[in-house]
Amino acid sequence: MALQSILLLLAVLVIGTVQGYVAYNITPVYRGSKYMVSKNAEPFDLAQMNGRCRGSGGYLLQLDSFREYIYLKSELSRIRDHSLVYTGITDLGSEGHFYNYNDKKPAAYLKWRRHQPDNWAGKEHCVNLSYYGLNDIDCRGTARYICEIPV
């Protein structure tokens, strides 16, 4: 019975919700924010996913520093199938000038994977984060997304 209680407590600490959608808590709090990754991959829509994050008190990830980038890369390596985690960084309407979708400010920190961004086929206007770094990607793909929630 005690083991079942401990396992239930761990499950509550690891899995949370983003406006009613099940998500992984990557960390309780890191430098004033907590981060949640959607549990399942689904068709991505910047406005809709940012709305889900906003409904939980946050927004799609905005990278602010090298430390945040390194920390999240490390944490994402612990989640299975983490290779395509959409962020809130985009260059929609301003090719090559990446900004945060939520507040429309220029992206503060961009550490691209080798040979990125490449805007392959003229369709890559969103950004994903993985253990390997940032990559520009088609905004209409299917993947998980990451919310940043200030605490």
TrEMBL record:
Any one cellular-component term (Gene Ontology): extracellular space
InterPro entries associated with the record: C-type_lectin-like (IPR001304), C-type_lectin-like/link_sf (IPR016186), C-type_lectin_CS (IPR018378), CLec_Tetranectin-domain (IPR051663), CTDL_fold (IPR016187)
Subcellular location: Secreted
Principal subcellular localisation of the protein: secreted
Record-linked PROSITE patterns: C_TYPE_LECTIN_1, C_TYPE_LECTIN_2
CDD domains for this protein: CLECT
Pfam families: Lectin_C (PF00059)
C-type lectin domain ranges (all copies): 30-148
Alphabetic keyword roster: Disulfide bond, Lectin, Secreted, Signal
Record's signal peptide: 1-20
Keyword Transmembrane helix included in the entry's annotation: no
Secreted listed as a keyword: yes
Gene Ontology molecular function: carbohydrate binding; growth factor activity
PANTHER family according to UniProt: C-TYPE LECTIN DOMAIN FAMILY 11 MEMBER A (PTHR22799:SF1), TETRANECTIN-RELATED (PTHR22799)
Protein name listed in UniProt: C-type lectin
Organism: Plakobranchus ocellatus
